[in-house]
Amino acid sequence: MFSTPFVLSFALLLSLPLLFLLAPRILPPRHVPISLPDELDDLALFRRAALASSHSSSATAAVSRLGTTNPPPKIAFFFLTNSDLTFAPLWERFFKGNEHLYKIYIHADPSAKVKSPGGVFEGRFITAKKTHRASATLISAARRLLATALLDDPSNTFFALLSQHCVPLHSFRFVYHSLFASSPADSSDESDSYWSRFGRVKYRSFIEILDKEPTLWDRYTARGKGVMMPEVPFEDFRVGSQFFVLTRRHALLVIKDRRLWRKFRLPCLKLESCYPEEHYFPTLLSMEDPKGCTHYSLTNVNWTGSINGHPHTYRSAEVSPELVYRLRFSNSTYSYLFARKFSADCLQPLLEITDSVIFRD
Ligand SMILES: *[C@@H]1O[C@H](CO)[C@@H](O)[C@H](O)[C@H]1NC(C)=O
Ligand SMILES: *[C@@H]1O[C@H](CO)[C@@H](O)[C@H](O)[C@H]1NC(C)=O
Predict the structure, then answer these.
(1) How confident is the model at residue 347 (pLDDT cuts 50, 70, 90)?
(2) Among candidate residues 246, 107, 86, the one with its CA nearest the CA of residue 166
(3) Is the pLDDT of residue 29 over 90?
(4) What is the pLDDT of residues 126-156, one digit of tens each?
(5) Please, which pLDDT band fits residue 189 given cuts at 50, 70 and 90?
(6) d(CA 313, ligand 1 centre) in Å
(7) Three-state DSSP class for residue 360
(8) How far is CA 270 from each of CA 54, 183, 218, 274, rounded to the nearest angstrom?
């Protein structure tokens, strides 16, 4: 007779190879490293953008000294996506008639075969690479957008990151004036400029920066204990919404960064705590220029009842003028300008209230 322990260990031994065979199919991929060629491509792009920007800023300064009029400042709108731009018709109406005040740049995951919606989006796709949730590839994509827009047009002054699930809550005019008039509400005239280590500067970046979230320690140790040191001590680690509006000098700061990127690009060991794009930008900017940031986002995301790290997704039945008014409202002095996340069936009801509600402000 065999003893039970013997049978048991024999069975266990037999099942081992089976486990190796099946594990990759059962378990989610542990991490998606960024390949060396991709990393080198990005580095070359960031270097070019940084170099061109240092040239163009001195060129613009020289031109304005001569009294030649500069073109008006633009907003660079980024669409970071891995599916079709379902709200393109709504954005089309948003942009209409403001051609000299904006530029559009789309980063679409090449494996998703995203169709061009035409119109204002025609020809605005940038050289993109694969993006994955819970990996640093979303940081890379955002940096690629920043570098491309810096290189493309010296008039790009604000850089607004959006996704395919974002919609506008106001007219273009309102958005443009909100950004360029951005100043602390309680001060007058000179107040929209302030002193930072960049000298006297005019605009601040709209980026959420939070330091008291309950999940922060788990997020900090997602790559292993002590891994982020010495570049990022826990006291400096921040979290914030992925959707930001950065100033040109902060866009430049982000693409020049090598130090923090070395840490944030490392793959996570704990995938359930891995949201690198929600940490890299707030941490870097709060370490480098906290006074140059508003610490809040202009994109309203509803985290009430979030599932699996996804925020509440609005459905067509929820779309109404009241929803737009509710989403605009923040208890501070500013109004939200954009909102997410909306499902595709919201397009028609949103288009119906575009002129009467969304663009009426
Ligand atoms: C946020 O989502 C919850 C459901 O998860 C919903 O009840 C609530 O009305 C939403 N908030 C707004 C402002 O729409
Ligand atoms: C509203 O104000 C309170 C107190 O100032 C603040 O803690 C909270 O985060 C604010 N909520 C929003 C949605 O901005």
Answers:
(1) very high
(2) 86
(3) no
(4) 999 999 888 899 999 999 999 999 999 999 9
(5) very low
(6) 9
(7) coil
(8) 39, 40, 9, 6
Q: How far is the CA of 326 from the centre of ligand 2 (A)?
A: 15
Residue in 331, 332, 333, 334 to alter for ligand 2 test, most ligand atoms within 8 A of Cβ: 331
Q: Whose CA is nearest to atom 1 of ligand 2?
A: 331
Closest CA to 206 of 95, 108, 337: 337
By DSSP bridging, strand 102-108 and strand 74-81 are parallel
Asked whether 242 and 338 are in contact (CB, 8 A), the reply is no
Report the C-alpha gap between 178 and 228 in whole angstroms.
Answer: 37
Residue 135 Cα to ligand 2 middle (Å) = 30
Structure tokens at 169: 């809550």
Residue range 311-323: mean pLDDT, rounded: 96
Determine the 3-state secondary structure of 269 from DSSP.
coil
Lowest-confidence pick of 129-138, 181-190, 280-289, 334-343: 181-190
CA distance 108 to 131: 9
Longest CA span, the chain: 100
Closest CA to 275 of 196, 216, 230: 216
Region of residue 272 (phi > 0: left; psi between -120 and 50: alpha; otherwise: beta): alpha
Say what the pLDDT of residue 34 is.
Answer: 84
Residues 196, 201, 206: CA angle, nearest 5 degrees: 85
pLDDT at 199 (0 to 100): 60
pLDDT band of 56, cuts 50, 70, 90: low
C-beta 330 within 6 A of ligand 2: yes
Residue by residue, DSSP assigns 271-323 as GGG--GGGTHHHHHHHHH-GGGEEES-SEEE--TT-BTTBPP-B-GGG-SHHH
Domain extent listing, the chain: 34-58+71-358
Q: Is the CB of 308 under 6 A from ligand 2?
A: no
In this prediction, residues 117-131 reach a mean pLDDT of 95
Phi and psi of 330, rounded to 5°?
-130, 150
